[in-house]
Amino acid sequence: MILAAGRGKRMRPLTDHKPKPLLPVDGKPLIVWHIERLAAAGIRDLVINHAHLGQQIEGALGDGSAWGVDIRYSAEGEGCALNTGGGIQRALPLLGERPFLVINADIWCNFDVRSLGLPAGALANLVMVDNPVHHPEGDFRLADGMLHEQGEPRLTFGGIGAYSPALFEACEPGAFPLAPLLREAMHDRKVLGVHHRGRWSDVGTPQRLAELERELGISSV
């Protein structure tokens, strides 16, 4: 699942008339980078949620056949984004009963998703990255492959994770964040983590979008 329902307020005015996942990065929409990487990893069945200007996303990507994937959409409605937890919970009928991968549309990352598994009994396995300048305090502590809410040093959640549908089984439909579910599962020692030391960018502002474009342009020369 690719999470693409955010309003992108920090990216305004670029997102006033175009959803953030469709903003171009080095010549192609940000979300297409994800689709291409997922297709290269052998993943064919994708679910994309959307809200703000969501029909533009469906119009640009269609059924995914251009990339050799099958895309289905979980439409939340203009101005009705359900937050991360609520968006995933709404899409569960499309995701099925097995563990699934979720990626934030507004990141750029070269993590190989084929290495991210979810062992029996675990509810989530999150990709963690070094704390960026704009989030120096981090999110969770990673120790021996297990994530903890408390403790140091801390890493930042990179917006990529594998989840069991059981994480959401007690949730009611509607808007709610993902973090409280993860913290509760951490207390039960059911959230794993991996430290990605490769390239990663949170493309949350026009400045960071421009920085990523410069980096990719330099690396492609």
List the helices and strands and how they pair.
Blueprint lengths: L1 E3 L19 E2 L2 E2 H11 L4 E6 L3 H8 L8 E6 L7 H13 L4 E5 L2 E3 L14 E6 L11 E3 L2 E3 L7 E8 L15 H9 L3 E5 L4 E3 L3 H14 L2
Parallel strand pairs: 1-4, 1-6, 4-5, 8-12
Antiparallel strand pairs: 2-3, 6-11, 7-13, 8-11, 9-10
Written account of the structure:
The chain has 221 residues and is of the alpha/beta class. The chain has one domain: Spore Coat Polysaccharide Biosynthesis Protein SpsA, Chain A (Alpha-Beta Complex), CATH 3.90.550. 25% of the residues lie in helices and 25% in strands. The chain contains five helices and 13 strands. It has helices at 30-40, 54-61, 83-95, 179-187, 206-219; strands at residues 2-4, 24-25, 28-29, 45-50, 70-75, 100-104, 107-109, 124-129, 141-143, 146-148, 156-163, 191-195, 200-202. The chain has a seven-stranded mixed beta sheet with strand order 5-4-1-6-11-8-12. A two-stranded antiparallel ribbon has the order 2-3. Strands 7-13 form a two-stranded antiparallel ribbon. Strand 4, helix 2 (54-61) and strand 5 form a beta-alpha-beta unit. The mean pLDDT is 92.
